Amino acid sequence: MANNVHELRPKASDSEKITINLGYVDLGHIDLLVQEGFYSNRTDFIRTAIRNQLDRHNDAVRKSVERHQLDLGLRHFSRQDLEAAQAAGEMLHIQVLGLASIASDVTAELAKQTIGSLHVLGTLHASAAVKEALKDRMR
Hints:
The protein is an alpha/beta fold. The protein has six helices and three strands. Helix content is 44%, strand content 21%. A three-stranded parallel sheet has the order 1-2-3, with helices on one face. Strand 2 (92-102), helix 5 and strand 3 (115-125) form a beta-alpha-beta unit.
């Protein structure tokens, strides 16, 4: 039964597409491993290799996340969150490792008035206008 268990591909909203360039020989090695049944396809090999490297460096990553005080995972900021910060006279300093999401109904002006800095290691989902308004506050 265990041979029939397969990891599901992440949903499109749970992953980010990247492009890499590989040398012909490296790509040939990957294709050989796929052909021999070690991996189901090239993507399976690359995901496995990345996860192995992340596991290998887990302690260093954990310490760095703590040192930089990063929010880990998904962090969503609604219009209400930003309006509450504005009402309190606070500026948000957003630091996320994973996905930072700013609601689509947040205006560029509200974002500028309430977000003092933005540091995202991973992906930022926000409107083009909000990204443009905050570009000088992003690292």
